[in-house]
Design brief:
Length: about 290
């Protein structure tokens, strides 16, 4: 009897030791994968600055001519609802733009987990669970950042993602190219940074899609030559307008990593999620970015 117990104890110890080794290897693999999604410097700085200037010029040209109609966005939201990408997504990320309020509301009403950012990513991201927000509160819950905080739960980047990974990320944009999916946003970099952070944390599904809803109505006039893309820019898989859904032929580009050189150290320190990534996961000296 004593021998049987000893054997079982020995087996248990071996299993524990093996488990520790596996766990260590998993953590090492996660660190390696994380570092693949981060680069400290731009690979082509001159090209980046040139493309940035071109996009800024184009942005100034069209911001002054904007004609925003919320009815158009509501129509686009209903059109998005009929796409197979939207129907197949259990978890969706939607930006905070007021024009996407209907999209956020639809997501909750359709029983999808809704992930939204805090303003400037100060507190990272929030999760709104459709099962925990009462039907009468769902419209109020998606109207402002403060209300989303009230009805949502802050996502902890140090813990496992608690829901199915994000399969659809939805953003507003100024203009987009129907042919290649190139996008021009407001210049604050929220779309590119949000996607790079979510990708770095491993919260995006391997088959996720990026959807944009352009504000400017003349999007069909644009070509790939006019709308250049920098190395930190993300391309759109779907372009939703009130009239139709466009599936551009996106170039074969790899994931877009976090690029340390273009991030302001003050922005990193003010953002819970960015500070955690740089300080805890990468152990990267933030001072070196200044």
């Amino acid at each position: 009897m004593f021998l049987v117990k000893s054997k079982n104890f020995y087996t248990l110890c071996c299993d524990i030791a093996l488990g520790i080794c596996i766990f260590k290897n998993i953590n090492d693999a996660r660190k390696i994968m994380s570092k693949r999604y981060f680069v400290p410097t731009l690979s082509q700085k001159r090209e980046y600055q040139r493309y940035k200037a071109l996009k800024d010029k184009l942005r100034r040209q069209y911001i002054s001519r904007l004609n925003v109609d919320l009815k158009d966005f509501n129509k686009a939201a209903e059109r998005l609802r009929r796409t197979f990408q939207y129907r197949g997504a259990q978890s969706v990320y939607v930006s905070l733009h007021p024009c996407l309020e209907q999209v956020r509301f639809n997501a909750l009403m359709d029983g999808k987990f809704l992930i939204v950012p805090d303003a400037n990513f100060v507190k990272g991201f929030y999760l709104l669970d459709p099962g925990k927000v009462r039907a009468k509160d769902k419209l109020a819950a998606v109207r402002s950042s403060s209300r989303m905080k009230k009805f949502g739960v802050k996502l902890n980047p140090s813990k496992k993602f608690p829901i199915p990974k994000i399969k659809l990320a939805i953003f507003d944009s100024l203009i987009a190219c129907n042919d290649c999916g190139a996008v021009l946003n407001d210049g604050n970099g929220f779309m590119d940074l949000a996607l790079s952070i979510l990708n770095f944390l491993g919260w995006l599904d391997k088959d996720f899609a990026v959807t944009v809803t352009p504000i400017y109505k003349g999007l069909s006039d644009f070509s790939c030559r006019q709308l250049v893309m920098k190395e930190n820019d993300w391309w759109a898989d779907l372009i939703i307008s009130p009239e139709n859904v466009i599936y551009p032929t996106k170039p074969d580009t790899s994931f877009t990593p976090l690029i340390g050189e273009i991030l302001d150290p003050r922005r990193i320190k003010r953002s819970d999620v960015l500070f955690y990534i740089f300080n805890k996961m990468l152990k990267f000296p933030i001072k070196s970015l200044s």
